[in-house]
Design a protein that fits this description.
This protein has four helices and 16 strands. It is an alpha+beta fold and 304 residues long. It folds into two domains: 86 residues, no CATH class; 200 residues, Glucose Permease (Domain IIA) (Distorted Sandwich). The strands form four sheets. Strands 5, 6, 8, 9, 10, 11, 13, 14, 15 and 16 form a ten-stranded antiparallel β-sheet that branches. A two-stranded parallel ribbon has the order 1-2. A hairpin with a 2-residue loop joins β3 and β4. It is globular.
Length: 304
């Protein structure tokens, strides 16, 4: 990373913090776990208790690795200096056994692939956005202007493993204006969507998740089922659930662009203030996969 790139990235982080934007989307940083309140984001020149925020940098390799070593080159009091630090790498999958949270044939529109927004958000790094595709290759019939047009809408959402419900919401509305309108260009839609999603992100939990259920499975693993239909959630805080129990119906509440299920497992009992945990489902077949592997973006999945 050259000097110009470092300066550009540093300036962006400092401006976001000064404008209060980082605080509004604290879930992107596990609350204060990554950026403590005492730390000030600054430019490329750092003083004590100042930091440089660098995000969305890919480190890819074959095989298992346990440590990432980072080497910094800079100047202190005018003298060239080199610093080295190491970051542990966690590569294990979820400890609990999980089933897919839907039955039948489904399409993983967004997974943990680098080209989706999930991979760059800590709580949903390994999340799935799951939809259903029809014979036309589309996720809806007709012009897709109504929720009922979507093949996924109203499907039973299932508990992925045994556990107990620790939080839920059931009263959030579905907003059809969040979907792409008939004859609306992709460019116009994305411009409108970016503005509307930015407004939702700063409103808090349920503006993002919509109607949801979160289940504690033990071993510091918690599953989230988001964007459910209003008044469809069948469970309450404190309820015990078994794998395969119907907990709600697939909908399009919260920060949703069309009916789909957002599912992820993370390491803390908060849908957003947590870090994602990768899951291998025990009851799925991935179409055209040569060997068993985690679900990725674009996979067609058959859940038994």
């Amino acid at each position: 990373m050259d000097r110009e790139a470092v300066q550009r990235i540093a300036d962006r982080g400092a401006k976001l913090q000064a404008a209060g934007i980082l605080q509004q989307v604290g879930f992107q940083f596990c609350g204060a776990d990554l950026i403590a309140p005492s730390i000030k984001l600054a430019g490329a020149t750092l003083a004590r208790d100042q930091a440089l925020l660098i995000v969305e940098q890919v480190f890819a390799f074959n095989g298992a690795r346990d440590t990432l070593r980072i080497r910094f080159h800079g100047h202190v009091d005018g003298h060239a200096t080199e610093f080295t630090d190491s970051i542990p790498i966690k590569s294990e999958f979820a400890k609990n056994k999980y089933n897919f949270p839907l039955r039948g044939v489904w399409y993983a529109g967004w997974g943990a692939s680098f080209h989706t927004g999930h991979r760059w958000a800590i709580p949903e790094e390994f999340a799935l956005d799951i939809a259903k595709i029809g014979e036309s290759g589309l996720s809806h019939k007709g012009d897709g202007a109504r929720f009922d047009d979507y093949y996924a809408y109203g499907a039973d959402v299932l508990a992925a493993a045994d556990g107990h419900v620790i939080s839920a919401a059931n009263d959030q509305p579905e907003d059809p204006s969040a979907m792409q309108r008939p004859n609306e260009t992709q460019e116009a839609y994305f411009a409108r969507l970016q503005k509307e999603q930015g407004e939702r992100l700063v409103k808090g939990l349920t503006a993002i998740t919509g109607n949801y259920v979160m289940i504690d499975h033990g071993k510091n693993e918690y599953s989230l089922y988001a964007h459910l239909q209003p008044d469809s959630v069948r469970v309450h805080v404190g309820d015990e659930v078994k794998v395969g129990d119907v907990i709600g119906k697939l909908g399009s509440s919260g920060n949703s662009t069309e009916p789909h299920l957002h599912f992820h497992v993370c390491d803390k009992p908060d849908p957003l203030m947590c870090a994602g945990v990768p899951v291998n489902f025990s009851n799925v077949t991935i179409q055209w996969a040569d060997l068993p592997r985690p679900i990725q973006s674009g996979d067609v999945v058959i859940a038994k």
